[in-house]
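I am still getting used to backbone structure tokens and would like to learn alongside you. To get us started, please write out a protein record for me. Start from the sequence, derive the backbone structure tokens from it, and show both lines together. Once you have written the record down, we can walk along the chain together:
***
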Amino acid sequence: MSQTPQSTRRDPRIDLKPGRASVELESEGSDGPRRRAEVVTISTTGLGFTLDAGPAIEVGRILSSASVRIDECLVEGDLSVRHSGPTDGSPVQYGCLFYPASLDDSARWMVVVDGRSSVGESPRPHLPIRCSNCHRTIWVSDDGRSSHQCPACNQEYSFGESVRGSRLEELHQRARRMAAELGIDLPSAVSMLLGLLSLHEVRDLLDEVLRNEPSATTPDAGRARRFDPAFGPAVEAGTLTEAQAFQRGKREALARKLATRHRISLDQAYAVADNRTSLLSIMRNRTPGKPIKATHGGPAANIRSLVVAASILITLVASLAILRQLAGPASAPDPQQVHSASVPPAPVPRHEPVDRELRDVPVESYARVQADDRGKILMVEATNPRNVLVAFCKSHEQFRRLEPVSVVPTVPPSDVAQLGLLRDLDEVDDYRIVVIRRDPETRRWFVGNPGKPDEPVSIFPAPESLVPGTESPI
């Protein structure tokens, strides 16, 4: 079967000549020697490197404090490993998102990927944002301007006042933490914090549901044949496989959601649903609209917007941050009747119920809880995600009534992250989620804000697809 070539890469990939670039990475142990790898490709948002020796790197892992050297330019930052695979020879090639450590590092990265001259004075600090019209990258400079224009489609963005200095650096740091947490690129995270993009828009353009290749969780042939009959012509024409049609759910519902989210016509949305064209190619042909106002209030306002936005897509990202600052182990039973969440074959993740009997057992017998002086929960740690969720809900009894519902795998599935679904009993049918992650050193599971350990655990409104009794094709 042949499929129509699709345009899905938002940022051009630059192939580098052998020996031109390298990256130094942390070893598995923090005290071990750093590993050196050859960088073979770069883009605005990431890089690819090859390793031919040493232990494999787990997809989904965050490689902190990486040092990338290209020619004479050195850029510091963190890497989020997104995929790995063998090359023609023996080395393994890894593809990563790259989060520069500072605005200055971001500016040096811009110099490299844009092919600008690095001779002379250091470049002015720059921060990339994602254009909401064509989804290309716009570099916002610390030059005092209150508006910026997309160099590709001419869409204008108004900031009301200049964004520079400490405010621009604060935006950069919050965006890189958010990008690592959600497994998305830095420009998209910046645009989300500025109110220019939603998580749905970011996810759709990353093609995590509208895939052009069958995923590892493709259902068997018998189930694949039970796709929505409305996809029949696309399957017959060869633009979709049966498995892809099955993954996309209901054609009508998918098309209408795409049309609403991305401000495209229904005919265009049907073409995307059938894989006759890509969503990105439609975006790239759009004309700019009126100037768009970017909101960049103080930290409290930005955190509020982050919580609202993250509720939509938090279940559908592949890679979540792994951080290593937890304290020592705590004793925790692992009830035999609680099973690990399995990978769902359908687009809607399968719920795995928690052990409700644990709610009658003292929390300290199966989990370790940290709270601030006012009793706000900062971190909960246990041997498995179900125990974490139960302990988290029970620890909130003095503030709010939270009921643990289930643990749900991310889509695509991840070995280092799960989602805890809970209900706020003080609100009617108010479902919430928390991100439960696995520490790579202790192998224990936890909820918390590793980047800001003094902040309470973040709770997000649950996406519609996770609310019991509802279904979503995406």
The radius of gyration is 23 Å. DSSP finds twelve helices and 20 strands in the chain. The longest helix spans residues 165-182.
